[in-house]
Amino acid sequence: MLKVFGGPGRYFQGPGALQTLGDSAALFGRRAALVIDRYVHDVWYDRLASICKLAGVELIPLIVEGEMTPDTIASLRAQAADLSADMVIAAGGGKSLDAGKAVAKALYKHLITVPTVASNDAPTSKNYVLYDTHHNLLAVEHMLFNPTIVLVDTEVISTAPALFFRAGMGDAISKKFEAAQCFHNGGQNMFNASSTVTAQLIAEGCLHTLLADGEAALQAAGTGTPTDAFERVVEAMILMSGLGFESGGLSIAHALTRGLPRIDGVGQALHGLQVAVGLLVQLDLEHRSDGYLEKLRDWYEKVGLPTTLRELGARAVDDTMLQEAAQLTLAARHTANFDRTLTQAELADALRRHR
To answer: Where are the domains of the chain?
Structure first.
């Protein structure tokens, strides 16, 4: 396979990055479809519209409500088709960013992402996820290219509750280990190609940044005042994690997000919290002897990440649920990026050890 590395066209991060939105949008035209959820619209729309107006760009909001189902996306695309928009701006959390990607893909337009939380690395990636009405994952789809511009205003990000920041760390901490599995076992990254060494080094840098600064960065979450540690960890959670997983590849930790929601109570847990537990299961299956499993458990305790299914929210964990979770996980494409073919019984046993 060829090696492929991809990423956003330009990445801005820091306090006040939001002020560059108008000038960035003006590069593509004068009329933007703004894909945004109701809460973020009520809190941030006036400011976003004012910034863009100064640059001669008009915002037309498309409100995202409910689950990211195929019907929701079809409705948003139908609304967007009548706007004659020159670009798409997606503002908010993962749901709004995913919806914006789906709309931008349908319109063949440039996409600017403006995250208001750092709960995952969606701002930089071309992937978006579709669910059914019960929040069961249906499919992962892709834009043709990554977002053209990513604007990460750390003053905005630092106002979000610590729970979202914690989930972002849970999502990002796995990338080094998943990318390594993909790289060493000839797996495919999100571009259906081989990983580059560059992507592996970025994923490793993500891990080291989180371990060094995660605990200190968490103290700034929810305060509205970003610190140096906060800035470094936000970069790790959004940029390094995003580049690391798309160009480096994924493995068992993310494959488990297909199966874990079938365990009673787990489906409502944030994606990053599910991945955090999934990583511990993956490291268990790797039979590692380098101490990383214990090291990560200690770090999880310090930053408040779950280490078991019950801490993740599981109300009951019976063998039927574990077997179904294992079966669904093994059907995910990322399981192929592992050092051996897992059996359902083997995976269910590993989940049982993390009840």
So the answer is: 10-157, 162-353
Q: Record the tokens describing residue 259, joined without a space.
A: 């199966």
Torsions phi, psi of 231, nearest 5?
Answer: -60, -45
pLDDT digits (tens, 9 = 90+) for 20-32: 999 999 999 999 9
* Residue 109 Rama label (left phi>0; alpha psi -120 to 50; beta): beta
Taking alpha carbons only, the member of 62, 60, 148 closest to residue 109 is 148
Confidence of residue 136 (pLDDT cuts 50, 70, 90): confident
Task: Kindly report the CATH number that applies to the domain delimited by 10-157.
Answer: 3.40.50.1970
The torsion angles phi and psi of 351, rounded to 5 degrees, stand at -60, -40
Q: What is the mean pLDDT of residues 209-237?
A: 98
Structure tokens at 263: 């365990």
DSSP conformational letter for 188: -
- Local structure of 194: helix, strand or coil: strand
Q: What is the pLDDT of residue 1?
A: 85
Residues 6+ apart with CB under 8 A from 259: 324, 325, 326, 327, 328, 329, 332
CA distances from 207 to 43, 111, 200, 203, 284 (A): 33, 28, 11, 7, 18
Superfamily holding 162-353: Dehydroquinate synthase-like - alpha domain (1.20.1090.10)
Contacts of 226 (CB under 8 A, 6+ apart): 15, 154, 155, 157, 158, 220, 234
Place of tokens 């495919």: 188
For 62-104, the DSSP string reads EEE-S---HHHHHHHHHHHHTS--SEEEEEESHHHHHHHHHHH
Q: What are phi and psi of 10, to 5 degrees?
A: -150, 140
Q: Rounded to an integer, what is the distance from CA 55 to the centroid of its chain?
A: 30
Which candidate, 178, 216, 215, places its Cα nearest to that of 195?
A: 178
| 87-92 and 111-115 strand pairing | parallel
Q: Which of 29, 19, 245 lies closest to 146, judged by CA?
A: 245
